[in-house]
């Protein structure tokens, strides 16, 4: 767990706990004992603590999250380091996160390689730094800067850390170990962080939080982080530590923390395929092909270009192709303007793009993704062509949102090479990718695609084949019920407000506007089969046209529309619908509970591997609030019995084929089918 070496009178202690040098119980004990022994050793004058491998430490051992902390606890270890009578230097490189940064702040001095990133991300798990981080960081960087890091969980660069006073010296990556030894030779006595004054007042922290309110969330953990940092400005160090401990103990038992930690683990579980052998070989991927230079195709291409993979982008016409190339160039230019990438990175990414109107130029690609219009006839034509021109072993993927991967694979002589890669829009921003397993998709193809998704910074979730897969299959009954509720008498604002009060970023009708009211529209303005058709016939296509179910101002803020009210009233009259008063409870059942039922069916049919995968899809793909843990975690906490009662109470509104899922009906009202106690 630890490696020791003495160079003259300097003892170097290296944490060796791959892959992330987690500070588990055995590491903490070893570090504690090493400090004790070094303090007693007359030949040791200065101690260095650094991480082995690619980073200092990513913090706590996540496998210990659900167990009582073994002694020495992290706070005990940090105190012991700070109490050491000999100078202790934290030598940072790679990542220094959470408890790793708290250990570094307990050291007397800090030196960092220039590429190091530092963060206290505990708030994202519904917690606060519990080993003195809320009290030491304000003493090093000031309370305003400290609250930025602690209450948002945001990472900072080594350069920012040096400017703020968090680290004492910045060195080149290649020289950081040798530079640390040189630095240690200059040190004479400890400088304890706890003894430093805090220059920011509590009032200044309040003013900073108020002025930057959009940075800080309103969850229990955000409020506790701010309270703890403020304590550092007006209380003795020991008093601040006591408050930090009290707040931490309260948070760790909270529903929000449990939900956020579930979300954390759910995303990591989703990236694994349960029955896939760990030694499954992956296919080499060095060249990407993308078919379609529209919104989805260009967004998909950007992901691979940023990851350093060459992309051949194909369109059938030169003008459409050029629009796509221009879109990609603007995306990179915007990244440079916002400081998210350098000009050199922009130039490199643009140079990796090879636009073409010749399908045969895809012949050298290892992975080809079609991202064309959602039409099975078109997609089958493309896969038939790819079967002819793609090299042996190339993976053939569809970005379809709904359609049957097996039908596409059926027109090829290599169905084992065919897979779905459903990116969510905007594809270069949204983290989720549904990896769709066809009936004959090869295991090596699945392993390759899951790994490649992570390589480009995405979160992959495996799905079987059904209409809409996981996310969109759950979405469809929600949208259908929202439109029907509107016709029956609910208002647009009322329907959407039920979802936003739950914590979703937008409601179902505004989601239709965002996606496009004209999705699936037959383009005949004289044929009005449903409310979407009526809006499209008036040119109300959604946000992109400035109007849909809502009107949108120049900043795309939604406002109610008298024209839509008139369309709805006319549609009701034509359909013979008499509007009635509808309760928020009914809207909740018909737009949210219905999704839970659909999710249960998805699990019963084996479309999703696990309940937590469904939570991940909806948190990452649709903005379901992480602090509720995702739809199925939320349903379990809400009570399956009450969800069944609501569905049964309003079942007449769901159509003749509706039935409550068997996995919901098992057992008593206390039965929890997704996450048993």
Main features:
677 residues; 2-enoyl-CoA Hydratase, Chain A, domain 1; Rossmann fold; alpha/beta
Written description of the protein model:
By secondary structure, the protein is α/β, with parallel strands linked by helices. Among the domains are: about 1-190 and about 200-255, 2-enoyl-CoA Hydratase, Chain A, domain 1 (Alpha-Beta Complex), CATH 3.90.226.10; about 290-470, NAD(P)-binding Rossmann-like Domain (Rossmann fold, 3-Layer(aba) Sandwich). It has 27 helices and 19 strands. The chain has an 8-stranded mixed sheet with strand order 12-11-10-13-14-15-16-17, with helices on both faces. The chain has a 6-stranded mixed sheet with strand order 1-2-3-4-6-9, sandwiched between helices. Strand 1 and strand 2 (about 10-15) form a beta hairpin. Helix 11 (about 255-270) crosses helix 24. The longest helix has 21 residues, at about 585-605. It is globular, with a radius of gyration of 28 Å. The model has no long low-confidence stretch (mean pLDDT about 95).
Topology:
Elements lengths: L1 E6 L2 E6 L9 H16 L5 E6 L22 H10 L4 E5 L2 E3 L1 H8 L2 E5 L3 E3 L13 H9 L1 H10 L3 E2 H7 L4 E3 L4 H9 L17 H10 L8 H15 L2 H16 L2 H16 L17 E4 L3 H12 L4 E4 L3 H20 L5 H9 L1 E4 L10 E4 L5 H14 L5 E4 L6 H5 L8 E6 L8 E5 L6 H13 L3 E5 L7 H18 L3 H11 L5 H8 L15 H7 L13 E2 L5 E2 L2 H14 L8 H21 L6 H12 L8 H8 L1 H10 L12 H4 L12
Parallel strand pairs: 2-3, 3-4, 4-6, 5-7, 6-9, 10-11, 10-13, 11-12, 13-14, 14-15, 16-17
Antiparallel strand pairs: 1-2, 7-8, 15-16, 18-19
Helix pairs in contact: 1-2, 2-3, 3-4, 4-5, 4-9, 5-9, 8-9, 9-10, 11-24, 12-13, 13-14, 18-23, 19-23, 23-26
């Amino acid at each position: 767990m630890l490696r020791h070496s003495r160079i003259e009178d300097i003892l170097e202690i290296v944490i060796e706990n791959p892959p992330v040098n987690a500070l588990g119980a055995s590491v903490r004990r070893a570090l504690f004992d090493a400090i004790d022994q070094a303090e007693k050793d007359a030949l040791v004058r200065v101690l260095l603590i650094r991480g082995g491998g690619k980073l200092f430490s990513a913090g706590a051992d996540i496998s210990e999250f659900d167990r009582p902390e073994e002694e020495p606890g992290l706070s005990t270890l940090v105190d012991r380091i700070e109490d050491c009578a000999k100078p202790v230097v934290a030598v940072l490189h790679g990542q220094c996160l959470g408890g790793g940064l708290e250990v570094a702040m307990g050291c007397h001095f800090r030196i960092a390689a220039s590429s190091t990133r530092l963060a206290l991300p505990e708030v994202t798990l519904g917690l606060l730094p519990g080993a003195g981080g809320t009290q030491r960081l304000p003493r090093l960087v000031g309370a305003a800067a400290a609250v930025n890091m602690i209450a948002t969980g945001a990472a900072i660069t080594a350069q920012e850390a040096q400017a703020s006073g968090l680290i004492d010296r910045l060195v080149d990556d290649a020289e950081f170990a040798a530079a640390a030894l040189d630095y240690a030779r200059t040190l004479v006595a400890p400088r304890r962080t706890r003894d430093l004054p805090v220059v920011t007042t509590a009032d200044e922290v309040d003013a900073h939080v108020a002025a930057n309110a959009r940075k800080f969330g309103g969850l229990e953990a955000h409020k506790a982080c701010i309270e703890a940092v403020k304590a550092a400005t007006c209380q003795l160090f020991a008093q601040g530590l006591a408050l930090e401990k009290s707040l931490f103990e309260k948070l760790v038992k909270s529903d929000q923390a449990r939900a956020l930690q579930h979300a954390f683990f759910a995303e990591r579980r989703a990236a694994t395929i349960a029955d896939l052998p760990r030694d499954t070989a992956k296919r080499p991927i060095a060249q990407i092909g993308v078919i379609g230079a529209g919104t989805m195709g260009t967004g998909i291409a950007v992901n691979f270009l940023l990851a350093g993979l060459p992309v051949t982008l194909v369109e059938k016409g030169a003008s459409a192709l050029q629009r796509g190339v221009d879109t990609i160039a603007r995306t990179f230019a915007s990244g440079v303007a916002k400081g998210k990438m350098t000009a050199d990175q922009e130039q490199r990414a643009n140079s990796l793009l090879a636009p073409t109107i010749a399908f045969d130029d895809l012949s050298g690609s290892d992975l080809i993704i079609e991202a064309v219009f959602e039409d099975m006839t078109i997609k089958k034509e493309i896969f038939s062509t790819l079967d002819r021109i793609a090299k042996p072993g190339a993976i053939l993927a569809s970005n379809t949102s709904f359609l049957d991967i097996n039908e596409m694979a059926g027109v090829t002589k290599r169905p084992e090479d065919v897979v779905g890669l459903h990116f969510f829009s905007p594809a270069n921003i949204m983290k989720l990718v549904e990896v769709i397993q066809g009936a004959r998709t090869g295991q090596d193809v699945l392993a390759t695609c899951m790994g490649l998704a992570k390589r480009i910074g995405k979160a992959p979730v495996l799905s079987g084949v059904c209409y809409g897969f996981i996310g969109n299959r759950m979405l469809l009954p929600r949208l259908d019920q929202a439109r029907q509720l509107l016709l029956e008498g609910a208002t647009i604002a009322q329907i959407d407000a039920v979802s936003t009060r739950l914590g979703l970023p937008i409601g179902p009708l505004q989601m239709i506007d965002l996606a496009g009211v004209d999705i699936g529209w037959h383009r005949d303005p004289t044929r009005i089969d449903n409310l979407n058709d009526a809006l499209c016939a008036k040119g109300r296509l959604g946000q992109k046209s400035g109007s849909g179910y809502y009107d949108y101002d120049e900043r795309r803020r939604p406002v109610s529309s008298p024209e839509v009210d008139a369309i709805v009233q006319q549609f009701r009259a034509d359909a013979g619908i008499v509007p009635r008063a509808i309760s928020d409870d009914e809207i909740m059942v018909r737009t949210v509970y219905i999704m839970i039922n659909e999710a249960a069916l998805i699990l019963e049919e084996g479309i999703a591997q696990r309940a937590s995968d469904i939570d991940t899809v909806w948190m990452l793909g649709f903005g379901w609030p992480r602090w509720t843990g995702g739809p199925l975690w939320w349903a379990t906490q809400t009570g399956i019995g009450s969800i069944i009662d609501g569905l049964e109470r309003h079942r007449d509104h769901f159509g003749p084929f509706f039935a409550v899922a068997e996995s919901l009906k098992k057992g008593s009202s206390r039965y929890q089918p997704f996450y048993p106690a």
